[in-house]
């Protein structure tokens, strides 16, 4: 019962402004003496803090308490083909330190894991924190990821298929390391802080030089039995597999254009009216639409969010995409462009790690320990 | 608090064998005096009943109580193209009376609604009950159904698109009339009493002279924003739209074969080795596989259940279906054949109506009334 009351107290303070004991008791539906005892205990553990009384307050100053978001931190990591991003955030999701490192797309398993370790260390150093301050870690990666954090299949990262990424990253941490498909995390990020905050069933489509999908149902990640939900790109009948080729085969592409710059180049040319670029974008949009239509007709989501490289070229892409997509669906689906840019996966990793911490805080069947594991 | 304790008491008895007050108190985590008072009240309302003491019981006979499944009834209706089925079940889902009427596939709106009314009356008469004994009604129909029970789109029933079916059937009842897509209900039935009882994410595929799909996610119906989840058949890129034609175009089909007998006829011929029939079944399986693959790659379900007419011909269909389906998916999906035959939709309607009744029983924010509304 005490643990249940503790959860009620934490819930009443988590994510909100500082409040006094009377209001806290009312919100947690507990007696004031009960709340007083719990607040004392949770303050002693480091979960709660007292706010100094406001200057100019009339009468006897009220004691105000708040959830100490700085009591713990989580680490979000995005392992991309040509970049590794890491961010350390407090328990409100506020960034305390971050790092982004470029890697070569051909980098193998050992080199990429070393880059992950380095980016993590840099982000922690920027936050003036150490590994022992971290309460949960989440890593986003391309590919089909098993529930235990092994990469079952990855087309785009060399030597990545079969990697037990949770164990590899977990070597450096005493806390849980979650591993999740990057599009799944991007979907979580859109609902947390992006364009999908008001809806529950979300199809996030990553589009650019590769295409992927993450699905939320009733606000929660839908991973599927083998972590392979949203892998519609594997169906040759719909055109995702051939979509990037329309961009790379754009005839006026300067020789030696790095792959990660191809999309921006073709969309820029299309924006200026170049007919060959407009044709390439039209074919790209048609193939993208086929896969999105299959997702829409299966899930009938509240919203489709389009992210990845193409989200910077929505002004060029939207017209042909709508023109190809709408006739394939029973009704035109709601479609929004991500504004999170290349931060989406990393932010989703933070959200996923925070959800893990919250599940621990709110788990009435387990004792609540102090926020961050302290170094020995 | 009393309402919460009432729910705990009802939950402890619902669906289980009769138990004594001591065990009931333990299961409901309530004091024995509290349970005694609640049992008395709920018995007075008609929700609970006392079981006669067992003969041969040693010592003072224990008082045993049970949930009175006969206290109320629900009505499940399946509006098909060529048949209307209705069943009245008690609150354990045990059938008390049923009726099945053949209708012509060309029957229009008024005629079909009259047939529904007639089948309902016949089922109630068989159960020796009246409309006022019914606590909830659920109607299954083909097509996309809005959350308020209007048929937004139906290809297979004449004059059915746009029909406010909930209001039409609701005219005869003072209780809620739920309307749901037939494949959605079949999916519920498979998880309730069919081959999907052990799993949470289910794709039910109805296959025969038409093809449809119902999806359960985390054990619950996934309807989608506009009730159009699972409508992958609308995507021309996957072959569901042309699948039945492979059967109707079987060259040795006797002239004038009624449409609803075509499938059985072709599958029977294939079973006996007829090459043209085997070819027709192979093409049918290929087109069926394309749509199933799109569903599997999107949802990655625990199980695909194949129902409808083809479920009686699994011995002929499974080999070509597997041969076409597995290469389209990342891994061969788990696939089971429905054993519910033509009862699936009706049973799913019963389950959906029972869930509605249970939600009312367990709703702690609303007072609990006596089970069945009595006639004035």
TrEMBL record, chains A, B:
GO terms for biological process: regulation of DNA-templated transcription. Residues 10-49 form the HTH iclR-type domain. One of its GO terms (molecular function) is DNA binding. It holds the Pfam family ROK. Transmembrane segments: none annotated. InterPro entries: ATPase_NBD, ROK, Tscrpt_reg_IclR_N, WH-like_DNA-bd_sf, WH_DNA-bd_sf. Belongs to the ROK (NagC/XylR) family. This is ROK family protein. It comes from Streptomyces xanthii.
């Amino acid at each position: 019962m005490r643990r249940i009351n503790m959860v009620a107290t934490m819930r009443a303070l988590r994510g909100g402004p500082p409040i006094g004991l009377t209001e806290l008791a009312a919100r947690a539906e507990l007696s004031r003496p009960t709340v007083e005892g719990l607040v004392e205990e949770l303050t002693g553990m480091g979960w709660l803090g007292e706010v100094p009384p406001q200057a100019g307050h009339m009468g006897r100053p009220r004691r105000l308490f708040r959830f100490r978001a700085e009591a713990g931190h989580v680490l979000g990591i995005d392992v991309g083909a040509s970049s590794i991003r890491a961010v350390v955030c407090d328990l409100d999701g506020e960034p305390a330190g971050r790092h982004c490192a470029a890697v070569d797309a051909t980098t193998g398993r050992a080199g990429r894991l070393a880059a992950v370790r380095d980016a993590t260390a840099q982000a922690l150093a920027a936050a003036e924190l150490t590994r022992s301050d971290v309460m949960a870690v989440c890593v986003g990666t391309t590919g089909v990821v098993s529930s235990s954090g092994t990469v079952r299949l990855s087309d785009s990262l060399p030597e990545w298929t079969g990697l037990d990424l949770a164990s590899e990253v977990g070597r450096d941490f005493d806390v849980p390391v979650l591993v999740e498909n990057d599009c799944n995390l991007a979907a979580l990020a859109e609902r947390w802080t992006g364009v999908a905050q008001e809806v529950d069933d979300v199809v996030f489509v990553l589009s650019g030089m590769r295409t992927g999908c993450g699905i939320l149902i009733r606000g929660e990640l839908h991973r599927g039995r083998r972590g392979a939900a949203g892998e519609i790109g594997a169906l040759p009948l719909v055109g995702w597999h051939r979509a990037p080729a329309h961009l790379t085969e754009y005839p006026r592409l300067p020789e030696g254009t790095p792959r990660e710059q191809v999309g921006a180049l073709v969309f820029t040319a299309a924006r200026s009216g170049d007919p060959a670029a407009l044709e390439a974008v039209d074919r790209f949009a048609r193939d993208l639409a086929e896969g999105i239509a299959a997702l829409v007709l299966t899930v009938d989501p509240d919203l489709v969010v389009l992210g990845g490289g193409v989200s910077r070229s929505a002004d060029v892409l939207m017209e042909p995409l709508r023109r190809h997509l709408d006739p394939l669906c029973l009704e035109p689906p709601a479609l929004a462009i991500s504004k999170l840019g290349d931060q989406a996966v990393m932010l989703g990793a933070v959200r996923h790690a925070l959800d893990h911490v919250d599940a621990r805080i709110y788990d009435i069947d387990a004792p609540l320990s102090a926020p961050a594991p302290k170094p020995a």
